[in-house]
Automatic annotation (TrEMBL):
Residues 126-179 are annotated as: Disordered. It comes from the Eukaryota. One of its GO terms (molecular function) is RNA binding. It is found in: Nucleus. Belongs to the RRM U1 A/B'' family. This is RRM domain-containing protein. Residues 29-116, 177-248 form the RRM domain.
Length: 248
């Protein structure tokens, strides 16, 4: 199982610069993503995107589409595309700058501002206007609100009940440079957890164990503690939160 997605090599830098779009639309709180490997299962894809982008600010919604949408009697393929709606323009801008070109499941992400402000943000800001006719269909397709089914990120609290000791891994209250993550849902993997933890200094690697148990290595106890304080209780999906302890 792969760990952290590697940055683009020097050899691929020139080709990456040719395919990365520069922002051509006004800055807004919604980002448009493309060049995604659509063979990834939808629940895994949405959670991986949420994990990647939530470190830049509060993410209100992640939208991915299934199948095609119809506009004017013609089908428009939308596979390999997604939208991330942030609470603020500042967070979206920071995410765009940081994640454009990030190698996500083997492909460099193409990230841009969305063409239109999302309905969710427009309604919040009091600027929402209902579109009509063809423009409405096109706008909905562009925002993932029309013909395609969407997968939404929803968050709920749940208690962690995994028993790490049966894997020969014991939790402890004594600070350690290795963290223990329990009750990780099956759709989360090393790559997703690595994207989450690598934002903290001293991160080394994530290692999986059976039963939804993972260990996360840092250079020092201090750095592991910083990551624990920042991520303990992080919501992974609708029914699971990140339960972190020190490893004995």
């Amino acid at each position: 199982m792969s760990a952290v997605a590697a940055p683009p090599s020097a050899a691929s830098a020139s080709s990456l610069s040719r395919i990365k779009p520069l922002p051509t639309y006004p800055a807004n709180a919604t980002l448009y993503l493309s060049n995604i490997d659509w063979s990834i299962k939808k629940p895994l894809l949405k959670r991986a995107l949420f994990t990647l982008f939530t470190r830049h600010g509060k993410v209100l919604e992640v939208i991915v589409l299934r199948g095609d949408t119809s506009t004017g009697g013609k089908k428009r393929p939308l596979r390999g595309q997604a939208w991330v709606i942030f609470e603020s323009v500042q967070a979206a801008t920071a995410a765009l700058a940081a994640e454009r070109g990030f190698v996500f499941f083997g492909r460099p992400l193409m990230v841009n501002y969305a063409k239109e402000v999302s309905d969710r943000i427009a309604k919040r800001d009091g600027t929402y206007k209902k579109s009509k006719g063809k423009r409405k269909a096109e706008d909905e397709a562009a925002l993932g609100e029309g013909g395609g089914k969407m997968v939404r990120v929803e968050e709920k609290e749940v208690k962690s009940n995994a028993d790490a000791s049966k894997h020969g891994i014991e939790p402890t209250d004594t600070p350690s440079s290795t963290l223990l993550a329990q009750n990780i849902p099956p759709e989360c993997n090393e790559m997703m957890l690595s994207m989450l933890f690598k934002q903290y200094s001293g991160f080394q690697k994530v290692k999986s164990h059976s039963g939804g148990v993972y260990t996360i290595d840092f250079d020092s106890e201090r750095e592991a503690t910083s990551a624990m304080n920042g991520l303990n209780g992080f919501k992974l999906n609708a029914s699971s939160v990140l339960d972190l302890k020190y490893r004995q």
